[in-house]
Amino acid sequence: MKKVLTLVLALVFVLALAAPAMAFTGDTTPEAVTPYKLNLYLVEYNDIGFFGGVSLPPADRGYAKFEVVAAVAELMIPKGKDPGAGTPVAYPSLDFTGKNVTFYLTDNVPDNATTTKYTLKHIGLAGTVITDDVEVTNATKDTKFIRKLTTPGFANTTANGYGIADKTVKWLFFAKVTGDDASLTVKAVDDSGPVVVTAAFVATTAVSPAIPTFPTGAFSYNGKYYHVQWDAADKKYVLTRVVYTEGANNEFKANGVVEFFVDGDNKTNGMAINGFNLGVHPVSGALGIYLVPANPSSFVTSGTEYDAAMKIYNDTVVGVFKMDFKLMGNFLRHKFFEDLVSGKTLAVTVNIKPWTAYVKVPDNVVVNPPKTGAAASILGFVMVALAGASAVALKKR
After folding, report:
1. Is-contact 242 234, C-beta < 8 A?
2. Which residue has the higher pLDDT, 306 or 282?
3. Higher pLDDT, 246 or 392
4. What is the pLDDT of residue 363?
5. Regarding predicted confidence, which is higher, 327 or 209?
6. Domains of the chain
7. Using the 8-state DSSP alphabet, how is residue 325 labeled?
8. What is the spatial distance between Cα 39 and Cα 187, in angstroms, rounded to a whole number?
9. What CA–CA distance (Å, rounded) separates 101 from 320?
């Protein structure tokens, strides 16, 4: 008994000493970030009508050619990514595409809107259809349509699920099967399609709590906003970083401007940040800015203006667009900006099973008839086969 008691006391003593040590060596792994999730599935659509609800059980059946299918796309928005609060939208648009289907529906569409033939409905948290989606745009008519999600495209209300952390936002849409091997695909696109415009960036403002309209020509790339203008008169591309700020006046405003100058052949021959021209010191080779354009004595490599310009240069010019000043003389055209793709696009596809009312016989079945007896000829073989089939039918009766 004494030995057991001694052992127990020893264990208690060891654990007492180990406890403080364990407190300093616990798990310090950062909390995992909840990722965006995209889901897509076919449903049986039943409009309840008067009660305003809708029944959407998952569908697991085949569809015939020219039949309309209903599907639901779900986008789970993780905590801290509420687009209605001005946070940059990681996926500014949903692209709806398909194979052997058409979205251009002119008839036989359940509860189709009268204002659009590309029906997309937003489903609220209670399972009700909130509204027909009027923000759908169409680039290729019947083969694709896009739902813009860029702030402030979302309606930030509790009823429809926007603005709530870790909630799934759903859309109901329809398509008509046009051929075999049909499928639907939805992509959550990480950038909203960079474009080069001819108009200068114009900030937009709205008095709190309203969210201002998204600036014309601005786009999202890797979760941040930009605007690219082509100034033909001065032969330069003007890249503006755009930020959203909240306050008494919520606004989208410029947060740094970069100018890329080109010659008649579109070769780069200069760069300016926040109005200060960049240059390389002829002796030290250091990259700096001219506080006064074309004045060598104003060239600096330190100071407030220099620090602000270099931050934009490192973070945006090089870090995002990979445009090193040392690469002056390279070509720069609209295509450079318009071809930007982040590579973080989410995509999900669902196949549409065909409805088959018969058993399909393979085309490559080859029959070798016997060479002797009553069935020595092809005709004889066929007659024997038919007689056998008839006997089986009579026996069943």
Report:
1. no
2. 306
3. 246
4. 59
5. 327
6. 37-191+345-352 (2.60.40), 196-338 (no CATH)
7. G
8. 10
9. 37
d(CA 292, CA 15): 70
Do residues 144 and 96 touch, judged by C-beta distance below 8 A? yes
Three-state DSSP state, 386: helix
Mean pLDDT of the chain: 73
pLDDT digits (tens, 9 = 90+) for 248-257: 888 889 999 9
Pairing of strands 224-231, 136-137: unpaired
Which CA distances in Å does 240 have to 151, 193, 202, 388?
18, 16, 10, 82
Picking from 42-56, 79-93, 265-279, which range would have the lowest pLDDT averaged per residue? 79-93
Spatial separation of the C-alpha atoms in residues 175 and 360, rounded to whole Å: 26
The kind and range of the H/E element at 14 are helix 2-24
| 184 and 349 Cβ atoms separated by less than 8 Å | yes
User: Which pTM does this prediction carry?
Assistant: 0.54
Q: Which two tokens stand for residue 124?
A: 């609220």
Q: Give me Rg for the CA atoms of the chain.
A: 33
**Helix or strand or coil: residue 229?**
strand
Cβ–Cβ under 8 Å, residues 177 and 75: no
Q: What are phi and psi for residue 245, nearest 5 degrees? A: -125, 145
- Give the whole-angstrom CA distance, residue 125 versus residue 45: 17
Do 384 and 375 contact (CB within 8 A), yes or no?
yes
